[in-house]
Amino acid sequence: MHKLSRTRNSDEMNFYRVNDNLGYVRGNITFSENCSNNLVVSDEPETTIDNLRNSLIMIQSGNRDIYPIENFQESYERFVSRLNGKAIKYNIPERVFKRENLMRKNLENLEKLLLDNYGFLPREIREIKGRVKKNGVFQVSNGEKGKIFKYFGDNKTRVESISEITRKLYPLFPLIERTNSGKHYVSLEDGLYILEEFVQGNVNLERNSQYFSKLGETSALMHDKLLQLIKENPNLGKELLSDTKYLSESNLISLAIDLSLQGHFDISSDFQRFEELRKGMESFPGYFIHGDLNSSNVIETSGGLRFIDLERIKKSKRVFEFESPLIFAGNMEVPVYVSGSMTNLIGGYNRGSSEEVKDFEKHLIEMLLECSLIKNFVIRNIRRKEKENTKENLLENLSLLRKEQS
Q: Shortest CA distance to 319 belongs to which of 268, 267, 357, 370?
C-alpha cells in the first residue's frame, strides 16, 4: 500500500501522484498496489482506493461515484467543475522526493566504503551537486583513475541487468565496477550506489545541426546494439520495464485540469489531441532505449559519442528516445527547443539505423514534444512553483516546433 501524508491546511485540496494514480483530496489518500490509471476527487479526511483501474472516482459527503475513463473531454469537464475555485497544495511524489533528497554523506566514511568494497583508495572525493539531486553523486580519484560513485535506485536486479549491458556494449556506456563480493552495487541506508568509470571528454556540447546529426547516428547504433543484445539474452531485459505512464488518461486529464485552474485555457485545450499520441503508441513494438539523452549525458570523446547516466534504460517505445535530447540542454534545465533540431536528429538516426523512423512515427514524435513541453511547464511552474520555466518560454518553444512541422 502507498500511504501519503503531509501537514496540511484544512481549507486546501491536496494533490498526490503515485505512478499514474492521482488524487485531489481534502486529507490523506492510500492507493493499493493493484491500482492503475485512476483519478480521484475526495472530500474525506482519509481516502482509500483499492483494486481499481481506469476509473474516475468522486467521493463527496460519504457518497462514492465511480466512472470509467473513456471520453477525455467529458472526464475533464466532470472533474474540473468540482475543483474550480479550490486552492491546491501540490505534494512531490514520495519516490521523487527521496531521489532528490538523499542523505548527506560523510566523505571519510565514503573513503572507507570504497576501499572495503572495491579496493579503491581515493585521494580525492568531490561531491557533484546537480540542479535537483543532492548528496548522490561523487567524483573520486586515486591519482591514476577517476571514477563516479552515485545513487542508482533501489532495485538490485535492475542494477545487475544494466551493469551487464554496460559490459556487453562497452565503450558506448561507462563500465560499472564489481565489488569485492562480485556485486555491482553497495547498499546504503538511502538506497543502492554504484562505482562507474569516469568518461573523459567534452560535455554540454553546442546543440547545433552537427551535434544533433551525430547524436542521431549514435542513438541508432545504440538501439541496434541493444536490440541484438536482448535478442541474444532474452532474460536480460525483463527488469527494464517502461515508466512512461504520464501518457495515461489520468495523467493527461490532471495536467489539463491544473492548467485550467491557473487560467491557461488556451493550453489545456491541447490535451484532447494527445489522446491520439497515446493510442498511436500502441501500434509500435517495444525498443530498448537510454531514456535521458539530454546533452549533459552525452560525452564527446576521441572515439565518438558516449552516453552516461543509465538509470532510465528501459523497454519502451522508440519515440521516447527523441524527447529529452530535443528539449533539454541539461538535466532539469529550462526547456529550449532548437529550430531544425528534430529534422537533424531524425536524419542522423535514419542514416545509422537498420529501421528508419517512418512518417507516422515522426508525427508522434512531434506530438510527444508538444506534450512534454506542456507537461514540464505544469510540473515546474504550477506544481513546484518554479517560475524559471515561464509561459512565454513554453509558447516560444511550441511556436518553433510547430513552424518546423509545417
A: 357
User: Could you tell me if 255 and 378 are in contact, meaning their C-beta atoms sit under 8 angstroms apart?
Assistant: yes
Q: Per-residue pLDDT tens for 329-370?
A: 988 789 999 999 999 999 999 999 999 999 999 999 999 999
Query: Rounded to the nearest 5 degrees, what angle is found at the Cα of 354, between the Cα atoms of 350 and 358?
Result: 50
In whole angstroms, give the CA distance from residue 68 to residue 74: 11
Q: Which residues does residue 17 pair with via DSSP β-bridges, in sequence order? A: 22
**How many CB atoms are located within 10 Å of the residue 312 CB?**
18
Dist CA 78 CA 57 (whole Å): 11
pTM: 0.92
- Report the distance separating Cα 217 and Cα 215, nearest Å: 5
Q: Decide: 41 and 58 in contact? Cβ < 8 Å.
A: yes
CA distances from 52 to 96, 242, 318 (A): 24, 21, 30
pLDDT at 132 over 60: no
Q: How far apart are CA 320 and CA 315, in angstroms?
A: 10
Which position has the grid cell 541508432? 220
Contact partners, residue 51, CB within 8 Å, separation at least 6: 32, 34, 35
Helices (H), 120-196: 156-168
Taken in order 366, 370, 371, 375, is the CA torsion positive or negative? positive
